[in-house]
Amino acid sequence: MRRVTFRRPRLPRTRRGQRRLVQAVMAGCVLALLPATWMYVAADDRLRTAADVPRTDVAVVFGAGLWDGEPSPYLAHRLDAAASLYRAGRVEVVLVTGDNSREDYDEPDAMRVYLTRHGVPDGRIVSDYAGFDTWDSCVRAKKIFGVDEAVLISQGFHIRRAVALCQAAGVESYGVGVDAVHDATWYYGGARETLAAGKAALDAVFRPDPRFLGPREPGVERALATAE
């Protein structure tokens, strides 16, 4: 069998070549950081705590996985924050948005059940079954459910991207980042956000349609009518 050999990349030998290499590396780093910078700037004055977030009709809770059909600990923290805001009279309706792409996996219904156990009436919960990613959830909140303003609830490592994308989708947004244990999932989420910032910037610029758009749904409007 013929042995395969790999050549090491040759570094430029001239000062001019070395200078160009350094400039290329620096330019690459800047370009890589631009989406994350945009994300931070877009969301910087939109972050609040549960205690000082403005009163808003709708809270949006993004899915974060299920464990044996129940909300994962990260998702449970988000739902706890939403329930607290509802009980405090800071929001009237909770829009739960998540993945229901398979018959045996239903984030929105699991989120609904959890919220009703924690004091949110079923009639004040609206389900978005096609929130396959953050951009899809934001666009559908605006175009399908008619949400113009919302409090977004997620972990701190995700909330800036959520706010930046919902702002880009036309939803006036405030973000509440909930506490989370700094475990392996937290570190993974933080690292993932650096990569996800690039896609988020492209979504904000090109504004693609969600994977599934569908017809307009009056769920939020009806839920708000019951609150009056």
TrEMBL record:
This is ElyC/SanA/YdcF family protein. The keyword Transmembrane applies. It comes from Streptomyces coeruleorubidus. Keywords: Membrane, Transmembrane, Transmembrane helix. Residues 57-174 form the DUF218 domain. The keyword Iron does not apply. InterPro entries: Cell_Envelope_Assoc, DUF218. The chain crosses the membrane at residues 21-41.
